[in-house]
Amino acid sequence: MSEHPRNPRLLSVGTLKELIAGDEIDTVVVAFTDMQGRLQGKRLHAPYFVDEVLDHGTEGCNYLLSVDVDMNTVAGYEMSSWEKGYGDMVFALDLDTIRLLPHLPGSVMVQADLTWLDGELVAQSPRSILKAQQARAAAAGFTAFAGTELEFIVFNDTYEEAWDADYKNLTPANQYNIDYSILGTTRIEPLLRDIRNTMYAAGLTVESAKGECNLGQHEIAFRFEEVLTSADNHAVYKNTAKEIAEQHGRSLTFMAKFNQREGNSCHIHLSLRALDGGLVFWDSAENERTPLYDHFIAGILATMREFTLLYAPNINSYKRFAEGSFAPTTVAWGQDNRTCSIRLVGHGNSARLENRLPGGDVNPYLAIAAMMAGGMYGVENELPLEDAMVGNAYTSGKPTVPTNLRAARDLFDASTVARAAFGDAVVDHYVHAADTELTAFESAITDWELRRGFERF
Fold it and tell me: pLDDT tens-digit profile of 236-281?
């Protein structure tokens, strides 16, 4: 991985003003990424944006980082409550993120940090959490780069039809395993092409699209970027792909495990460079990994169980971890070994590690921040790297990652490394988010219970 400049298809402030003045742009979407990894925000009329918002941002209720997936207010969060009056946060514009949204007429998007009214970053915001780990790496002399690989399943039903059907008996866009199949991807190429071209125009560098194993499952890959840019792009892509699917009369899901077949992964590739762009993971003279690279890998492994909550944030995330499924179950690393949670690939400029633990439901800011925090913990403490896993990690007897959200929640809550890296306020916030999901799930009546017990209990 090597440093490269800001994507030229992103807009400057000057260009945006010209497009608005020429009546080519009438809507500016101001968005941030919430705890669940979703884009939230406002649509602003473009002339008003230039006159009133461009210089100082806009505001939104601070409950936006203290709600569940259904947008219900949740008691127990320190940063936001009825007792504190549910005041405002500032959407502080990052003017390096202005991008066209060609699938929406006359629209652009700008992403935002969340700050308090005094300008201090909201520590619990996913973007703030990743920025803090960026700063930690920069203080040690490093820049981090990442690429995320998201899988999704496409259905020939609209989102409304899927909702009305209780998400049962949906029709997948492909009826058989189309992993790497050109014929299989051709069947929905109009949708895939529309997503690729839209994201290219929105400032992402598109690499490829390919079929995957589950019925109707596909992946579109994008070029790696500096970690904050990659996380921003990831959030925009997930949202946009769903919008375009709806425009095609289809729906798609990134959920980690939709059915009993293969789940949706989000493999994350990560590498460090020196601030001047020099290699730090690879010794070119010896043509081998550097000790720093080994320490970084060791740190990710040492913290993997404690940080799993940030890699697998939902109840459903843990259904994906199954032996022989290409989703990892053990804390292990290997050289180009897809049975391991950490797979090393590339050499020289391309030397990087792949974290295979996260699923398609992951919040990219939190997962990349966890990888950086774990890796820097290994570097700072010069942790030794165990021998590479050779063979099948599923049957190796290696320690396993947590198998459910409650176990991951408890490990994260008790982690001194997490509290040192992220701060008590962040750890407590996301532990409470896990508690909220657990409470909701444990009070729900599932289809499994009804089928098992309605007649026979």
Answer: 999 999 999 999 999 999 999 999 999 999 999 999 999 999 999 9
Tokens of 343: 């797979």
Contact 306, 411 (CB under 8 A): yes
Q: How many residues does the chain have?
A: 457
By DSSP bridging, strand 58-61 and strand 88-93 are antiparallel
Fold of 13-122: Ubiquitin-like (UB roll) (3.10.20)
% of the chain at pLDDT higher than 70: 99
Query: Around Cβ 439, how many Cβ atoms within 10 Å?
Result: 12
Domain map of the chain by residue range? 13-122, 133-450
- What pLDDT band is residue 195 in, cutting at 50, 70 and 90? very high
Cα 375-381-387 angle, rounded to 5 deg: 65
**Do the Cβ atoms of 382 and 290 come closer than 8 Å?**
no
This prediction has a pTM of: 0.97
Amino acid making up residue 275: L
**Sequence letter at residue 151:** E
- Which class does domain 133-450 fall in? alpha beta
Asked if pLDDT for residue 1 goes beyond 60, the answer is no
Contact 355, 266 (CB under 8 A): no
Task: Indicate if 133-450 has the same CATH topology as 13-122.
Answer: no
